[in-house]
Design a protein that fits this description.
- With about 400 residues, this protein is α+β, with helices and mostly antiparallel strands.
- The protein has 2 domains: about 5-170, no CATH class; about 210-390, Histidine kinase-like ATPase, C-terminal domain (Heat Shock Protein 90), CATH 3.30.565.
- Helix content is about 70%, strand content about 5%.
- The chain has helices at about 5-25, 30-45, 50-60, 65-85, 105-125, 135-140, 145-165, 180-240, 245-270, 280-290, 310-325, 350-355, 355-370; strands at about 295-300, 330-335, 340-345, 370-375, 385-390.
- The protein has a 5-stranded mixed beta sheet with strand order 1-2-3-5-4.
- The chain is rod-shaped and about 120 Å long.
């Protein structure tokens, strides 16, 4: 934006239009900050209302010229305060946890405010001295901690030195210089709290992302691990049957195709968060898979329990491990409303299976539901997998 555009903004919008055109060339983001700054601007100018009385008194005591000058300076001061809050309003809550550098265009505003304070003191007397606090307040709200601290310290020292050096100043207490310091400390504490809250929010979001990734990885492992294990067993069976019983071999091949399609659909549903697993459905799958592996199965006929999905995942992973690792001849499944138990008579669980991602993911599922997963070896051999949840 050039000088011509600035001049046009002044003609159409006055002083505030000029301020907007000079310091808010950033487009929509700057406009958003201006809107957030209006409340602060109104509050800040409200504090300046105490000067209305002294300026009005100046009209009657010092004449129209001095009174008009004081009025003009006070209005100009108010415009500078409003302009600083509108133009340099801080970022919205949570936009950044990193402190932004000071905008160099703010320094002319502070210099002009100092000049207004000096002018008001010269026009209406020491009663205008507290207006220098607006310099500190503007810096506190629109500058980083270090720069605003320097400005605040300078303003506090000026107020303290003047009030202590000239104790006869009417209506100006010496402790006035402490107010900017208190505002600065309160402001920094507030900003620190906001940054900590924003960091906590971002960490929660990152943890949610990690949890969702783990969910997808766990579901894909469980789906593909079970399906591919059954497909492998059925493929081996079909190869053995192809020269003995061609009709049954074709049936097994058709089952292999069905399982492959179901696995693909399951992966798609898992990625989309739509995967549904039920105990009733997994019992039916287990019966087919164990039969294909020549494992005698004792499976209950139960309807879905309150923990149907969780028990379905437990059964899926346990049956997959029985087929893949156990070399078992028998497998028994027992289900109660609060537990599921899968026992086989195989060679036991190896170190690779016990520490694999399948059982680790299964433990995470059960733990998330408030339950426990135990892996043990019965006296007669094999493996017992038991998941239980509070009733």
């Amino acid at each position: 934006m050039g000088v011509t555009s600035w001049f046009a903004s002044f003609r159409t919008g006055g002083v505030l239009g000029f301020i907007d055109s000079v310091v808010t060339e950033g487009g929509p983001t700057a406009t958003s900050r201006r809107r957030r700054g209006w409340f602060g601007a109104v509050m800040a100018v409200g504090w300046m209302s105490y000067m209305i009385g002294p300026v009005s008194q100046s009209w009657s005591d010092d004449g129209p010229l001095r009174g008009a000058s004081a009025t003009a300076v006070l209005l100009g001061y108010a415009m500078l305060v409003i302009g600083s809050f509108v133009a340099f309003g801080r970022r919205g809550r949570g936009e950044s946890v990193v402190e932004q550098p000071a905008d160099p265009r703010l320094w002319p505003f502070l210099a002009a405010m100092v000049a207004c304070t000096v002018s008001l003191v010269g026009l209406v007397g020491p009663v205008a001295l507290p207006t220098v606090m607006f310099v500190a307040v503007t810096a506190i709200f629109h500058m980083p901690a270090r720069e605003s601290g320097y400005v605040t310290l300078a303003v506090a020292l000026v107020l303290l030195l003047i009030t202590l050096a000239i104790p006869d100043l009417s209506g100006v207490p010496f402790w006035l210089g402490l107010i900017p310091v208190v505002i600065w400390v309160a402001r920094q504490l507030g900003l620190r709290g906001e940054r900590l809250a924003e960091l906590a929010r971002r960490q929660r979001a990152e943890l949610d992302i990690v949890e969702e990734r783990n969910r997808v990885a766990r579901d894909v492992h469980d789906i593909l691990g079970h399906s591919l294990t059954v497909i492998t067993v059925k493929t081996e069976l079909a190869q053995r049957l192809i020269d003995v019983d061609l009709t049954r071999a074709r049936t097994e091949l058709a089952d292999i195709e069905r399982l492959a399609r179901e696995a693909l659909a399951g992966v798609r549903d898992t990625v989309g968060g739509l995967r549904e697993v039920t105990l009733h459905g997994e019992l039916a799958n287990a019966r087919t898979a164990l039969a294909a592996a020549d494992i005698v199965a004792e499976l209950p006929e139960v309807d879905d329990t309150p923990h149907s999905e969780l028990f379905g995942w437990v059964l899926r992973e346990a049956i997959t491990n029985v087929i893949r690792h156990s070399a078992a001849r028998h497998c028994t499944v027992t289900v109660t409303p609060s537990s599921i138990e899968v026992v086989d008579d195989g060679r036991g669980v190896g170190a690779a299976a016990a520490s694999g991602s399948g059982l680790a993911g299964l433990r995470a599922r059960v733990k998330a539901a408030g339950g426990t997963l135990t892996l043990s070896a019965p006296a007669e051999g094999g493996v017992r997998v038991r998941a239980s949840v509070p009733e």
